[in-house]
Design brief:
The protein is α/β, with parallel strands linked by helices. The protein has helices at 9-19, 55-63, 81-93, 107-115, 125-133, 151-167, 182-194, 210-217, 243-247, 258-272, 278-289, 308-315, and strands spanning 28-31, 38-44, 74-77, 97-102, 119-123, 143-145, 173-177, 199-205, 253-256, 295-301. The chain has a six-stranded mixed β-sheet with strand order 1-2-10-7-8-9, sandwiched between helices. The longest helix is centred in the middle third of the chain and has 17 residues, at 151-167. It is globular. The model has no long low-confidence stretch (mean pLDDT 95).
Length: 322
């Protein structure tokens, strides 16, 4: 596995231009919560054609490569949204697509992959993680795109940060959900290249918060995790190839509870009629939980792909089962 690097402004600009014909710019909207010393803005990746930001990196990963590399198809390891995005990208170029997913991934994402012609191959959570970290790889002919460390993936994610800076040049804080770290790496790279004062924070589910643990220990550590309905963020550890890059970019980590996240999900629906999955609402939960963060705060609402049954529990005031 080739070690990733911080995507450059040129790499990010090229990625944005490459995906632009297939991905409409998502809006940055203000959410008025009545705070006197801070303004909350939402970067609505929920309005992507697949309902999540992952179409950006999937498109760039596919469109930046020689089509001959996909003669046997393309594959990705994903808890859902990246698989969904890659299925759409593969359909665009007419290539077969495979998603390695673990059982328990949201059904709406599994259905989305299959509806776009993708094949879902279920693996254990342990195998799934080994594929992401590169400890093991599937014995299959398709070109496997790493959803965390692939350089084109990082540059594609950087297009989010570029749009934020263009729409709100005086942004003070950006909050990004942290799963494997590819979104945070891309967004932070774009933000830091354009603004010396803006701070970027990784947002985690406190049921599984490896960034907070690594920052406290000064190194990657393995942590105990608790089951959570929030599927797209949280892991027992960090991807070792990406941590040296993203660790130098972020200004800290914020861990929020499933209860705080569901409160944010309800708030998004009540105040703005925005449907967000758990990971998507985590950034807003972090903004609310940290009143010490001042000024213009952008929350990246990463996706809205949540099963209807789980979302009905949230709207009813509960926390869905893990």
């Amino acid at each position: 596995m080739i070690a990733p690097h911080r995507p450059t402004p040129d790499e990010i600009a090229d990625a944005r231009q490459r995906i632009a014909p297939h991905f409409a710019r998502t809006p940055l909207v203000r959410l008025d919560l009545g705070f006197p010393d801070r303004q909350i803005f939402l970067k609505l990746e929920t309005l992507s054609p697949i309902g999540a930001f992952k179409l950006r990196p999937a498109l760039n990963a596919v469109l930046s490569r020689d089509p001959a590399e996909f003669e046997s198809g393309v594959a990705v390891t994903s808890s859902g949204n990246m698989a969904y995005g890659m299925a759409r990208a593969a359909r665009l170029i007419g290539a077969p697509m495979v998603a390695y997913m673990y059982r328990g991934a949201p059904q709406t994402k599994i259905d989305g992959v299959r509806a776009l012609g993708g094949e879902v191959r279920f693996v254990s959570a342990e195998t799934w993680w080994d594929y992401i970290t590169g400890v093991d790889l599937p014995d299959a002919p398709e070109l496997l795109i790493n959803p965390v460390t692939d350089q084109a993936v990082l540059a594609g994610n950087g297009s989010i940060g570029m749009e934020i800076i263009e729409d709100l040049p005086d942004v003070d804080v950006v909050l990004t959900p942290f799963g494997g770290g590819s979104m945070t790496t891309g967004v932070a790279s774009a933000i830091k290249a354009a603004s010396a004062r803006c701070r970027v924070f990784a947002v985690e589910d406190d049921s599984a918060a490896p960034v907070s643990a690594a920052l406290a220990a000064g190194q990657i550590v393995t942590i105990e995790t608790r089951p959570s309905f929030i599927k797209s963020i949280g892991a027992p550890s960090l991807v070792p190839q990406i941590w040296p890059v993203v660790g130098d970019l972020i200004d800290g980590a914020i861990a929020v509870s499933p209860g705080q996240v569901t409160e944010a999900m309800r708030l998004l629906f009540k105040k703005a009629k925005i449907v967000a999955e758990g990971a998507g609402a985590a950034s807003l939960a972090a903004a609310i939980a940290r009143p010490d963060l001042k000024g213009n705060i952008v929350c990246v609402v990463s996706g809205g792909n949540i099963d209807a049954a789980a979302y009905s529990v949230v709207l009813g005031g509960g926390i869905p089962a893990a």
